[in-house]
Amino acid sequence: MPTSLSTILRPYVKKTNENLTQLLPSKKPEKLFLYVAYQLGLVNDKFEPLKEPKGGKRLRASIPLMTAKYIGDGEFSSSIAMALELFHNFTLIIDDIQDGDETRRGRPTLWKVIGTPQALNAALIAEALSFECARNACVHLSPRTAMKWYESFQEMTQRVFEGQHLDILYEKQDMVYTAQYLQMARAKTACLLGTSFSCGFALQAKEEMRNLAPQMKQVGESAGMAFQIQDDILGLWGDPKKTGKPVGSDLLRHKKTLPISYAMENGSNSTKKLIQEAYSREMSQKDAESMLSCLEVVGAKEYAISQVREYTGKALSLLASIPTDEKLKKSLGELIEGLAYRES
Questions:
Q1: Do 176 and 279 contact (CB within 8 A), yes or no?
Q2: What does the CA dihedral 107, 111, 163, 67 come to, rounded to 10 degrees?
Q3: What is the largest CA-CA distance in the chain?
Q4: Class of domain 1-137
Q5: What is the spatial distance between Cα 205 and Cα 145, in angstroms, rounded to a whole number?
Q6: Is there a shared CATH topology between the 1-137 domain and the 155-344 domain?
Q7: Domain ranges in the chain?
Q8: Whole-angstrom distance, CA of residue 92 vs CA of residue 110
């Protein structure tokens, strides 16, 4: 049985929360950065500090902190961890506005609390602060190496929003092929995890360590694909007691995830018609349950599970081939399995 994701991440979540709590109060204007603090789960909707932060998994921030624990450069790992967490939350603010989502992590989304205009301002501040932290993470490197890293961070930004563009575009398409869906997931989700896995190497002072960064990026992108597809599975078949969402929640929201793409591409004409009709109207819980049965009959659930296994296997195989600290590889391997087989 793989170690639970929360157990693996716990020490790094604590450190990230402490670092963010120290960073934000030093910024002005105070109220604007309190909006960012709300998004990060550090304050409540009255903008008062929370004893127990509600900021999610802190997954993307945890990976460079874990890397630093085993191969060093911990002095700069906190900066890049904050950069990644701030960037991720910048994208979430935008995503919530574009999707019209009113809750996240059991709380009202930022735009519901302060309105869309100010939420957009907070998103842009979070992005700017993310780039500030990314710059601080590479000050120890030569100007040429630092610029190369900084450019890669900018390229990541472009790719993530290319993925977001495709995600919105596909909402209006009747047919989204599995290859199209995987292209979108690779950009929107896997790209950021690729950076999380690689940055602990890319920011090392020694060139031989930096040269391992491209391989680590491949590990992270494969793990990111498994993470996203497992998310798709949980969004349809997850246990409500563990996910906090009803069975078939992604269907109720008309999300076109990998199992839907597979069913549309490989199902019978009657299956395709059933899906298209269901997505053209408001779906009841009973409709969603009927759809889930249909997806299982066509093999969509089995296919999605097989893809999680395939991408996880690829990530673990690539990781095993990289000549770096064995304890780090063991910890990252446990993390990859935790991402793939989590239940919430």
A1: no
A2: -50
A3: 61
A4: mainly alpha
A5: 10
A6: yes
A7: 1-137, 155-344
A8: 10
Q: Identify the CA nearest to 19 among candidates 146, 133, 141.
A: 133
* Torsion on CA atoms 331, 337, 341, 343, rounded to nearest 10: 10
CATH of domain 155-344: 1.10.600.10
Alpha helical stretches, state H, 190-257: 191-202, 207-210, 213-237, 240-243, 249-252
Question: Which structure tokens are listed for 329?
Answer: 């590889």
Residue with tokens 């911990």: 74
Contact 259, 243 (CB under 8 A): no
pLDDT in tens, 165-219: 999 999 889 899 999 999 999 999 999 999 999 999 999 999 999 999 999 999 9
Q: Which two tokens stand for residue 111?
A: 């735009």
Residue 214: asked if its preceding bond is cis (omega within 30°), the reply is: no
- Beta-bridge partners for 108: 103
pTM of the predicted model over 0.85: yes
Dihedral sign, Cα of residue 81, residue 86, residue 92, residue 98: negative
Nearest-angstrom CA–CA distance, 271 and 265: 10
Q: Look at residue 298 and give its three-state secondary structure.
A: coil
Burial profile 146-180: b = 16 or more Cβ within 10 angstroms, e = fewer: beebbebbeebbebbebbbebbeebeeeeebebeb
* 3-class DSSP assignment, residue 61: helix
**CA geometry: angle at 262 spanning 259 and 266, to 5°?**
140
Structure token pair of residue 96: 């919530």
Q: Pairing state of beta strands 107-108 and 103-104?
A: antiparallel
State yes or no: pLDDT of 1 exceeds 70: no
Q: Where are the alpha helices (DSSP H) in the chain?
A: 5-23, 30-39, 59-71, 74-99, 110-114, 116-136, 143-171, 178-185, 191-202, 207-210, 213-237, 240-243, 249-252, 258-266, 269-279, 285-297, 300-320, 326-340
Q: 291, 278 in Cβ contact below 8 A?
A: yes
